[in-house]
């Protein structure tokens, strides 16, 4: 074992001892630490200066109480979080997640990944993430509004256009961002750049809603182009049917792919004629219903209740996991391989377990890690910040073109970095090493802070 490997193992073991129950966080750290050694061998200064140990500890972790009243007049309370992980490259930037599973481990893994993702965009944004264990399902508009207002009463103390700029994630879309923005404005005055993913009426960016899903498909397109292939007639399955999934399906279909399935937390749908996206949007975006409603208008489709879409046995080329973390287990990865999948590109954050990743690697499946392939959302958030600072809106075409170029750059950076350090293509290692390099350089030159 090299000295550097020993150093990395020691750091990881110390975290395991300190946070034995934070399994998602430890998983994200393990994935990163497992790939960074070749970079450190050639750049030992970062080991000498112990940058890794500094990087692993969040600059700040805020946990707070969110009291709110439901429609029956009952008092309720949830826990809120904001993890301000690293500001070497700019203000903390990352979404807010509302989901009952939210806890410190999930917040820390998301914020940790966000550091490298944001670095890969080459835009001036540091890494952060936040959210609450509040479950928005089944809540009225009034309940959502009161909850968001109460959350912002506390969060507003810690954010601002030049300090920390939250956005959406699972359970947080335009409606929630609107309520959060309104409350921030009431307390601090109008500051358009304090949140991104805003509705267009008050300085949201065109194409931000589409950005993560479109960016994911652009990433896959650039990867396929490298192999003299295109998306035309490729068979695709997508997990989830939320923001990222919907716009990934839209762009994939526009580029000629056939998308046969999508899902939500109640099960998955396979449509032999291809997914009717307008119907999915009506069900999920407009009516906030369950995905099985799809069958009422598409009788040839099948719904698999309570099942994970990666259990499906159907031939396809490309898997786009766009739901949540750890949705692809090793057992499911084996099914995917049997189905003939060639590319797995992550729209979600860390949807593949480390063991599932091994299965994909053993079978030479091309794997695009979320911190690279889903970076389009946060990249356009940074473009929204630029538009807000300029006080000038850009056209959809301009934002979309920038997004496509950013995804191309990220793909090529990951590819070329892994070729340089490993003499083979490994997008996970490439993403981690290239993402780390910029952050580490900035940390070193900013001194011990
Ligand atoms: N929004 C963005 O810009 C970005 C999002 N991401 C990541 O993409 C993923 C999806 O986010 P987004 O589309 O914004 O969120 P949404 O809330 O819009 O949609 C989430 C989708 O995933 C499904 N889902 C959530 N949890 C589970 C679960 N435990 N099991 C099965 N299905 C589940 C939801 O089903 P149901 O409706 O039943 O809850 C829904 O279809 C997340 O991992 C997020 O971190 C990454 C980069 C940027
Ligand atoms: O747009 C943003 O700031 C955050 C997007 C996000 O949360 C993510 O990339 O996971």
UniProtKB/TrEMBL annotation:
InterPro entries in alphabetical order: Aminoacid_DH-like_N_sf, Glu/Leu/Phe/Val/Trp_DH, Glu/Leu/Phe/Val/Trp_DH_C, Glu/Leu/Phe/Val/Trp_DH_dimer, Glu/Leu/Phe/Val_DH_AS, Glu_DH, Glu_Leu_Phe_Val_DH, NAD(P)-bd_dom_sf
Domain Glutamate/phenylalanine/leucine/valine/L-tryptophan dehydrogenase C-terminal: 205-447
GO molecular function ontology, one term from the record: glutamate dehydrogenase (NADP+) activity
Keywords: NAD, Nucleotide-binding, Oxidoreductase
Family: Belongs to the Glu/Leu/Phe/Val dehydrogenases family.
Subunit architecture: Homohexamer.
The name this protein goes by in its record: Glutamate dehydrogenase
Record organism: Vagococcus carniphilus
